[in-house]
Design brief:
The complex is a heterodimer.
Chain A lengths: L16 H24 L20 H32 L1 H14 L8 H11 L4 H29 L3 H9 L4 H35 L1 E4 L2 E4 L3 H10 L3 H30 L16 H8 L2 H19 L14 H32 L3 H38 L1 H16 L6 H11 L3 H26 L3 H9 L4 H35 L1 E4 L2 E4 L3 H11 L2 H34 L2
Antiparallel strand pairs in A: 1-2, 3-4
Helix pairs in contact in A: 1-2, 2-3, 2-5, 2-7, 2-9, 3-5, 4-5, 5-7, 7-9, 7-14, 8-9, 9-10, 13-16, 13-18, 13-20, 14-16, 15-16, 16-18, 18-19, 18-20, 19-20
Chain B lengths: L14 E12 L7 E12 L3 E6 L5 H8 L7 E6 L2 E2 L7 E4 L11 H11 L4 H14 L15 H13 L5 E5 L7 H16 L7 E6 L2 H7 L2 E6 L4 E7 L11 H15 L21 H13 L3 E3 H7 L4 H13 L3 E4 L2 E4 L1 H8 L2 H15 L1 H12 L4 E3 H8 L5 H17 L3 E4 L4 E4 L4 H4 L4
Parallel strand pairs in B: 3-8, 3-9, 6-7, 7-8
Antiparallel strand pairs in B: 1-2, 1-4, 4-5, 9-10, 11-13, 12-13, 14-16, 15-16
Helix pairs in contact in B: 2-3, 2-4, 3-4, 6-7, 8-10, 8-11, 11-12, 12-13, 14-15
Classes of the chains: A mainly alpha, B alpha/beta.
């Protein structure tokens, strides 16, 4: 019988010399830029004196943009390594799973910006007298905004791996290294890529917030786009802020075309499902790379290295070669682990309680909690306003495929644009109109947070099947009835996801949005975010501690008690 | 049991894998462990093809995975060449139902992967893989990705990947059931001819299937497994010469005999029926109605293999319907024949209200879970109870997935009989208004 081919093999593009040249030049430029930028990261530290290291001369912008980008990518590399290590540990070890999954869950809902002061102090201590400490702190801030989600993506991809794939790996007796390279890493590529790109988009916000930080009345600045905007704002040079915004948009677009799109298009080859994605992502850059012979040559040249690694990987042993230990031994191991955990947690908690009692006292906790309620109020208003505006608009966009195609990339750029770049304009407006930051802070917080709602509502609305839409028209439902019986229920699961993310973003933003500088004036709002910022600037560690813990408690409690149940309910009741 | 020939005469080859007193239990959250295999004794010998045949729930795939050393037995031992297993079995290779190929590797790379695990040099790897790829009829596809291949070609890659390891015993878990009928038949024929050829690199095959004809077509020995928990019900030797003809009288007689074995009542004494020891077969009311009407149209009696063949069903698809209808007393099974009972005949000819009432009466009498739910709802304050209450009760004897399935079956039956309904908004079961509920006595 003749073999049947369902689909012709994808035609491999013709290789051209031109493509080779373009790729070679591209690689060389990339290397040179990297070396130039990396050289600056070990410069002697210039803390204390205000920003002598950087100035707002526009000629510096390309260099600053490069430094900012370098930070982003270094953080991404570390996040990826972390995601693999932790995700695989959680998926493969029952004990690690019990520890890591709740830990990751809490870490990803904690407001990262509150910790900046602690990490900056730590990293400066680690690299005394060098900019590298500040660089590390900035990279770490970005890292903490992406690593947890990415680890979850790996964990989920591995736990939902088809059982027979796992059995095939064990049947063949793969070594652990071979299993990682040939089975596990490829099957996490797609979720990990999408997650990394989402995190990358969100990372710009943390990057620009972490490039300039005042700690204990000393200002630390790193050359970068974020610090440039801060300085330009202080000098009240709106033209320069605008210029920086333009550069930022260019950077985001460049990262999109040169990195994000090729990566998503390349990741498609790791799709396990039969069906291909409706519109498989495509990328000109990836096509160019595929046209060139260089990547293939490189792969060939590296093959012996791969074989050597493969052999070296044998020392790691085979994947699940032995059956798990009998029950008795497992229980004993669990007990040891539990005791060890308690031995860390109990003194830790005791120390924390004691620290608060002996320094600021418990009245400070009550005070911070009251401020937390004020900020919580702002978060609620942000959510309500964003929902009122963006749900109807998002539904309109999502239900018109032509508009969606045009609007989706724009929204993506808007969502990854760091909102703190827009703060100067908003602050100037507040000053001009004499609106207090207590109310204006809401606007600042929503600058970044609102997009998550729009984003998700568009996705939800565009997923409504045409049959259903035609059916409600056919039944003669009025527009109001259509919303009541089709649109709102259909969009709800996506909306709840957007709301959860937006709320998280708003809490984080409150730390930078409740205090605003413009020229020589500084505006203050009443709230937990302002409390943390003030404590950080003054270097009052007990207050920083109380503020961050209270805010984390707020966010974690709200996620656990409100958002997650809501999400579960929406997904079971209204999933299409 | 005169129909069963015991396997004593044939299979004189040396034992490759030996399963000795193996039982397997799976832990169930907050309940008794679920017993899937019960005291299995089985040998795989050189030169024979053994088929493990059973309904779903008979633990046949679990048994295969125990032989492959992919899961440890809870009790008993599995030996490979007299050595007890402590991990995956070095003398076996598995062909999976879903193929389990790595989509990002080419056919060649997929086949080479197991050799790479053994640390062979690239050249040796390539040569051995190429040889098997040719043997299995994949020449010309070495550089294709699995996505580009049809189901049949993909399963060939599955075969090649297993055979390249030159296992002493090839283990196959329903290897043809994800393929269309023609492709499956084609592959079966090729497997038979490979088995007879000189250079076939394996000495024994163990095949899991729910398809009786497939078992008779391929195997030298058919091991029939009973369900809940899985245990060996019978072993039959198939002495037919190869290639085998499905239409021959001997073949048909064996198929009928195995049907009888599969459907035969369990000799074990049944204790009082409870929702835990008498699970509801996964059958919808509509499916049962279809079966009963079909039987009524044939005068109330039919041969199961004939019915199955006519509907182009396999035993696994038809069996839950037959089991459910038998549980409710709508029909009776004797050997490979099914007969409608008086109730079954009445149900087939009743109008809708009458048929609902009759069904309600039968479900209340014969389906333990339906009875328990009705009783509990009647004793509740307002005729409503959270569905999680019943799910918790069921989790004492079933996995979470199975508990959900049992509840879903009961709801389907209860809804049809208007005994109770499920309120999805409040996640509650609500007592229905069937007249049957009024006149049935407690207990």
């Amino acid at each position: 019988m003749l073999p049947l081919i369902r689909r012709a093999a994808p035609t491999r593009p013709a290789r051209t010399v031109l493509a080779d040249v373009v790729v070679a030049v591209g690689v060389l430029v990339l290397l040179w830029v990297f070396v130039e930028l990396a050289a600056g990261t070990t410069a002697p530290i210039t803390a204390g004196e205000t920003s002598s290291a950087i100035n707002t001369d526009p000629a510096n912008l390309p260099y600053y943009a490069g430094r900012s980008m370098l930070r982003m990518f270094v953080a991404l590399v570390f996040s990826t390594i972390f995601a693999f290590a932790v995700g695989i540990a959680a998926a493969r070890s029952r004990r690690a799973e019990k520890l890591l999954v709740p830990a990751l869950d809490i870490l990803q809902s904690v407001p990262i910006l509150g910790f900046l002061s602690v990490t900056v102090t730590f990293f400066i201590g680690l690299f005394p007298g060098s900019t590298l400490g500040l660089e590390a702190a900035s990279v770490f801030a970005i890292f903490t905004s992406q690593a947890w989600n990415m680890a979850f993506a790996v964990y989920q991809a591995l736990t939902t791996q088809p059982r027979e794939l796992d059995e095939a790996a064990r049947m063949m007796g793969l070594t652990r290294w071979q299993r990682f390279v040939k089975v596990d890493a490829p099957s996490t590529v797609i979720p990990l890529t999408w997650n990394a790109l989402m995190s990358l988009a969100g990372g710009w916000f943390f990057l620009s917030a972490s490039e300039a930080i005042t700690l204990a009345n000393k200002e630390y600045t790193l050359p970068g786009l974020g610090s440039y905007v801060l300085l330009a704002t202080r000098e009240a040079r709106m033209d320069r802020v605008l210029l920086a915004i333009a550069v930022m948009v260019l950077v985001i677009l460049a990262v999109n075309t040169l990195f994000a799109r090729p990566l998503t298009a390349w990741a498609e080859r790791f799709r396990v499902e039969e069906a291909e994605a409706d519109q498989a992502p495509r990328s000109v850059v990836l096509d160019l790379l595929r046209r060139s012979r260089l990547p293939r040559r490189l792969a060939q040249a590296l093959r012996p290295l791969g074989e050597a690694l493969d052999r070296a990987g044998r020392v790691l042993g085979r994947t699940s070669a032995r059956w798990p230990a009998p029950r008795g031994r497992r229980v004993a191991g669990d007990t040891v682990l539990g005791v060890a955990l308690l031995a860390v947690l109990v003194p830790g908690t005791w120390w924390a309680l004691d620290y608060v009692t002996t320094t600021v006292g418990w009245s400070e906790v009550v005070h911070a909690s009251a401020l937390g309620l004020v900020t919580f109020g702002r978060v609620l208003i942000v959510l309500a306003l964003a929902s009122l505006v963006w749900v109807p608009l998002g539904v309109w966009i999502g239900m018109n495929p032509r508009v969606t195609r045009f609007a989706q990339p724009v929204v993506q750029v808007l969502a990854s644009f760091p909102a703190n770049f827009l703060f100067p304009f908003a602050t100037a407006l507040l000053l001009a109109t004499h609106v207090s930051l207590d109310w204006g802070g809401i606007a600042l917080m929503s600058l970044g947070a609102q997009w998550y709602i729009l984003f998700n509502v568009i996705a939800g609305a565009s997923a409504i099947p045409t049959d259903l839409r035609e059916a409600v028209v056919d039944l003669g439902l009025s527009p109001a009835q259509r919303w009541r019986y089709l649109v709102l229920p259909a969009v709800l699961p996506a909306y709840v996801t957007g709301g959860l993310t937006a709320a998280g973003g708003a809490w984080n933003a409150s730390i930078v949005a409740e205090v605003a500088d413009y020229g020589d004036t500084t505006l203050h709002a009443t709230g937990l975010g302002a409390y943390i910022t003030a404590a950080t600037e003054a270097g009052l560690y007990p207050r920083i501690f109380v503020g961050v813990v209270v805010m984390s408690a707020f966010v974690v409690a709200l996620n656990r008690l409100v958002w997650r149940p809501l999400q579960r309910w929406a997904h079971t009741r209204f999933a299409l | 049991m005169t129909l069963v020939q015991m396997t004593t005469a044939v299979s004189t080859g040396r034992t490759i894998v030996s399963v000795e007193g193996v039982s397997k239990e799976f832990a169930v959250r907050g309940g008794e462990p679920l017993r899937v295999l019960d005291n299995i004794n089985l040998q795989l010998r050189e030169g024979e093809i053994v088929a493990l045949l059973g309904k779903s729930g008979s633990g046949k795939s679990t048994l295969l995975r125990t032989i492959a050393g992919l899961i440890p037995p809870s009790d008993g031992i599995v030996r490979y060449r007299d050595e007890p297993l402590t991990g995956s079995n070095p003398g076996t290779a598995v062909v999976f139902q879903s193929f389990a190929l790595l989509p990002w590797l080419t056919v060649q790379e997929n086949v080479e992967l197991g050799l790479r695990a053994r640390g062979l040099d690239p050249d040796v790897r390539r040569r051995r893989a190429e040889r098997v790829i040719d043997l299995i009829g994949l020449d010309g596809f070495a550089n294709a990705y699995p996505k580009e291949l049809s189901g049949g070609m993909r399963q060939r890659v599955g075969f090649a990947r297993a055979l390249v390891l030159e296992p002493e015993a090839l283990l196959m878990d329903e290897p043809f059931s994800a393929l269309d009928v023609l492709t499956a038949e084609n592959l079966r024929t090729e497997l038979t001819s490979l088995w007879g050829s000189e250079d076939f690199p394996t000495r024994s095959i163990c095949l899991v299937t729910h398809n009786i004809e497939e078992a008779v077509l391929l195997a030298d020995r058919v091991v029939v497994l009973g369900a809940n928990p899985g245990r060996i019900k019978a072993e039959l030797t198939i002495g037919l010469p190869r290639p085998r003809d499905r239409r021959s009288a001997g073949f048909q007689a064996l198929v009928d005999q195995i049907y009888a074995e599969l459907t035969g009542a369990d000799p074990a004494v049944q204790p009082e029926a409870t929702p835990l020891n008498r699970p509801l077969p996964p059958a919808s009311v509509g499916g049962m109605a279809g079966l009963v009407e079909l039987l009524a149209a044939r005068g109330g009696k039919a041969d199961l293999p004939v019915v199955a063949a006519e509907l182009t069903f396999e035993v696994d698809d038809l069996m839950p319907l037959v089991d459910a209808a038998a549980l409710l007393g709508l029909l009776e099974v004797a050997d490979a024949d099914v007969y409608l009972t008086a109730e079954g005949l009445r149900w087939a000819s009743a109008d809708i209200p009458t048929s609902k009432e009759l069904f309600a009466r039968l479900a209340l009498r014969h389906a333990p879970l339906v009875r328990v739910i009705c009783r509990a709802l009647r004793r509740s304050r307002n005729g409503r109870l959270r569905d999680s209450f019943f799910r918790d009760l069921l989790s004492g004897g079933f996995s979470d997935a199975e508990a959900n399935r049992q509840l879903a079956i009961a709801v389907d039956w209860g809804r049809y009989g208007e005994l109770f309904d499920h309120d999805a908004v409040d996640s509650e079961l609500v007592l229905g208004d069937s007249l049957v509920l009024g006149d049935t006595k407690e207990g």
